[in-house]
Amino acid sequence: MLKPEMQKAFNDQINEELFSSYLYASMVSYFEQQNLKGMAAWMRVQVQEELLHATKLFGYVLERDGAVELKAIAAPTAAWDSPLDAWKAAFAHEQHITACISDLHSKAVELKDPASTIFLEWFVTEQVEEESNARDIVAQMEMVQGAPGGLFMLDRELGSRPAPAAGGNAAAT
Ligand code: OFO
Q1: Is 86's C-beta closer than 6 angstroms to any atom of ligand 1?
Q2: Rounded distance between C-alpha atoms, residue 171 and residue 166, angstroms
Q3: Does residue 18's CB lie within 6 angstroms of at least one atom of ligand 1?
């Protein structure tokens, strides 16, 4: 059974993941409004990824005989100064999530909960990829600033991101 402090920390992280999906859904809308359909498509996939992260945590809490407590999800920003600004916000958000996962992992160690420690290692690794994806796109966006042809090509490339595999990296539990 999960210790109450650990259960609360997992529930906080479920809320963080649901907020991530909300934030990226807001970016889908923003990119659509900017006519950047490929970026919107990339973000649609990201929304699914975040829901898988939330679902994975949700399943784990229940598997440990814990109680999932769903909280209100904050409203995300609806518009950004520029597409580059939106990608920078996505990168900053992933850095924030990495810090949350790191704190959660430290708590599992501190509370001597080896099952949670091992479970959270998947998320630690996942955050390396999440940050790297966003960082790369920020760098590419910076390269194409002032070059509409480059932005067009980048948008097209981002639009080819595949959907997460069924059960995917973050297998639903
Ligand atoms: Fe983007 O990794 Fe979850 O929140």
Answers
A1: no
A2: 8
A3: no
What pTM was estimated for this model as a whole? 0.94
Digit-coded pLDDT (tens) for 37-75: 999 999 999 999 999 999 999 999 999 999 999 999 999
Closest residue by Cα to residue 124 from 142, 109, 144? 109
Residue 126 CA, closest ligand 1 atom number: 2
Angle at 12 between CA 8 and CA 17, to 5 degrees: 145
Which ligand 1 atom sits closest to the C-alpha of 19?
4
All domains of the chain, ordered by start, with CATH? 4-158 (1.20.1260.10)
Tell me what pLDDT residue 85 has: 98
Summary mean pLDDT of the chain: 95
Q: How far apart are CA 38 and CA 106, in angstroms?
A: 37
Burial of 98 (0-12, 13-18, 19+ CB in 10 A): middle
